[in-house]
Amino acid sequence: MGSFVKDFRDFINQGNVVDMAVGVIIGGAFGKIVSSLVTDVIMPLIGAVTGGISFSDIKYELTPAVMENGKVIQEANTLNIGMFIDSIINFLIIALCIFTVIRLLQKSKEKFIHEEAPAEEAPAPSAEDLLTEIRDLLKAGEEDKQP
């Protein structure tokens, strides 16, 4: 049991797990911000353009509500097409925002890497060049030994 706890502690302390947890938390908060952007800013603008129609109100009633003495006994069974459209628009805007953030990060990373890149080193000599150099050194050593 002790090794299980130790292995679990080591797993939790790895940087990747902590990074992933931070990413999930920030992603959740980012999702709420974008959802608010869609619900509170974009959808009212779309509603104003479409004459006050709210997508969330678009429904197709499959079976009507059952009423008795003015009280609803059973709710209407509806296809909430407008809520589906809202969800699609929400997804597309979130995907666009994430794409934009990731693209900006990649561009800034590329710019940073290009600015900080060390000067290129001379290419390594080929095997043939090395062998030629060794041969020449051996010949020079033999010539030095001759009287």
Order of SSEs: HHEEEEHH
**Low-pLDDT residue intervals, each spanning 5 or more residues:** none
| CATH topology value | Non-ribosomal Peptide Synthetase Peptidyl Carrier Protein, Chain A
By oligomeric state, this entry counts as: single chain
Structural class of the secondary elements?
mainly alpha
Mean pLDDT score? 80
The radius of gyration is: 34 Å
What's the tally of helices? 4
Distance between the termini: 79 Å
> So what's the CATH class?
Mainly Alpha
Based on the structure given, which CATH architecture is correct? Orthogonal Bundle
Verbal overview:
With 147 residues, the protein is mainly α. The protein contains 4 helices and 4 strands. Helix 2 crosses helix 3 (81-116). It is found in: Cell membrane; Membrane.
Provide tags for this entry:
two-stranded antiparallel ribbon; 69% helix; 147 residues; mainly alpha; Non-ribosomal Peptide Synthetase Peptidyl Carrier Protein, Chain A
